[in-house]
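Pasting as-is:
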Amino acid sequence: MRSIDKWADPEEDRASGSRPAFMGKLETITTTFPQNDGHRTVRIWLPENYHSNRQQPYPVIYAWDGQNLFDKGTATYGLAWHLDETLTALAEEYVVIGFDSPGDALSRYIEYSGLDWTHPTVGKVQAHGRETVDFVVDALTPVLEKRYNISNNPVDRTLMGSSMGGYITLYAMSYRPGVFGTGLALSHATSDHYGGKQLRKYFRKNGFARDARLYLDMGDQETVGPWGPDEWLQGHHAMVAALNDAGIPLQHRVIANGVHDETAWAKRFGEIFQTVIKPCEQ
C-alpha cells in the first residue's frame, strides 16, 4: 500500500485571498498513484453540516480529474464543476472525493485507459487503468474511510467522470464489479479513436455487477481536437448498444447544444444528481 504523504486544509489560505471561499469544507491529501512517482492531490469536500460522529455514514461521490471539481483556479482549463455550490444549493449531505489527474494528455490517457489502444496523433497508449482502479479501491479508499464518516456500502458509492474520466468510470464498474453502485460517464471518450471498440468488446465479455446502475450522456455539439459531434455521438450510441447488451439498468441522454467542457457538465450535474444518484437512497 502506498502511503499518504500529508493532509492539508485549503481553507487556511482563505484569509490571504489566494483561494475563493468554498461552500462546505475542502481538505486535501497528497499521495502518489502507481504509474506516476510524482505527488498527486486528492480533494475531499465535506458538506457544511458534516459531523464525523453522525450515526449514519455519509454517501460519497468519487470523481476523476479532481482539480476541476470545485475551484476554477486549480482547474486544467480554468473551468470548474462547482460541485460544492450545487450540492449546497440542493441541501444534500454528500461527501465528494476527487482524484487529481496527471498534467499531460498522454499520461492521463495511460492512467485512465483500461485497455491498450492507439491514439491517431499521440500514438500507442499502454493502459494502466487496472492499476489506477486497484489503487483507488484497495489502497486509497480504506484510508479515506478510516478518516471520514463515509459509507462503504456500494449503494451509497457513486463513481463519475467526464471525457476520459467517463471511460475509466465505465471500465472500473466492470473491472471491479460491486464496489460502486452507480457510475456516471458524462461526454465519455469511448469512440473508436479512443479505444472504444476494444472497450465495448470487454464489456460484452465481462459484464457488470447485476445491480450496477449507469448513466451516460453526450452533447450534440461536442468537439475535441479534429473530432466533431458526429464522432462523439457515434461513440455514445455504440457504447449504449454495448451496455444494453450487457443487460444492466442504463440511463442515457443526448444533450441539446452540449459541448465538451466543465461549464457544460456543471450545468447538468444538479439534474443528474436528482434523477440518477439520489434515487439510489429511496
